[in-house]
Write a structure and sequence with these properties.
With 252 residues, the protein is an alpha/beta fold. 26% of the residues lie in helices and 24% in strands. The protein has a single domain, classed as Rossmann fold, CATH 3.40.50. The protein contains six helices and eleven strands. Strand 7 and strand 8 form a beta hairpin. The longest helix is centred in the first third of the chain and has 15 residues.
């Protein structure tokens, strides 16, 4: 199977960051790391490829930097990567991101697309579903387990009360939860091999897409400090004030 895994490079969460004072966008450093949630998608992709004698390609959109995060995923065992690095895409919303990623995936051809449920620096949680719509493929979401049965793919879809069994044939888009598999650690051999694996850096124009202006952040303000609570002295009538407060909060 031809497996495409959506991955994202993000600033190291352990490092300080700052916003551009003019645009209010995050200043992304040259050194970026692989989003931790994407390691599960990469591992799942590798397992599917190993079972089907297939291949794994990574697809990512954003500033390439020194490609540290991409090479982390390649060191796990992925074969190659496509990175869409285009300054005209700065501020792209989830729909624009999905359109670009799906165009890159469609150009390559695929049997399975795998993604995490959401990125840890965006948390929109809708890009994989939008990709599925652009690719006209079913979306199997929130998979806590993935099984292959010939040409059929079956998942256990995590729900609030347990899980649903969902299955389909490819091509398909799957989103995986943390814990669906245990990601492997890159070996020294894998780290060295990642340095020579092909990384195709392209722009929106290469995909035949004219990028439009993205989101605009008009202002950034500090979150208001939490106000001090009200101290109620009980002289036999405190319960009345408590009831009033609960009514104001529409709790009762």
């Amino acid at each position: 199977m031809r497996v495409m895994v959506c991955v994202k490079q993000i600033p190291d969460p352990a490092s300080p960051y700052e916003l551009d004072p003019d645009t209010h966008f995050l200043r992304r450093p040259t050194d970026q790391v692989l989003d931790d949630t994407d390691r599960y998608g990469v591992e799942m992709g590798l397992m599917i490829a190993e079972q089907t004698e297939g291949s794994v390609a990574l697809v990512s959109m954003g500033p390439a930097g020194n490609l540290q995060g991409i090479r982390q995923a390649l060191a796990m065992g992925a074969d190659r990567a496509i990175v869409i690095d285009d300054p005209t895409l700065r501020g792209a919303d989830s729909l624009a991101t999905a359109r670009i990623l799906s165009a890159a995936i469609g150009r390559e051809g695929f049997d399975v697309v795998i993604a995490g449920t959401e990125s840890t620096d965006g948390y929109s949680g809708v890009v994989p579903q939008q990709i599925a719509e652009f690719l006209d493929a079913p979306a199997l979401t929130f998979a806590k387990k993935v099984d292959l049965d010939g040409e059929r793919i079956r998942i256990e879809r995590q729900t609030e009360y347990g899980y649903d069994l969902v299955e389909t044939t490819g091509p398909v888009v799957i989103t995986v939860t943390a814990g669906v598999v245990e990601p492997r650690y890159p070996t020294f051999k894998g780290i060295m091999a990642a340095k020579s694996k092909p990384i195709d850096q392209i722009t929106a124009a290469d995909l035949g897409i004219t990028a439009t202006s993205g989101q605009e952040i008009v202002a950034v303000r500090p979150a208001p400090e939490r106000a001090a609570g009200e101290i109620i002295e009980d002289e036999g009538q405190a319960h009345i004030r408590i009831i009033q407060l609960l009514e104001q909060a529409k709790v009762i």
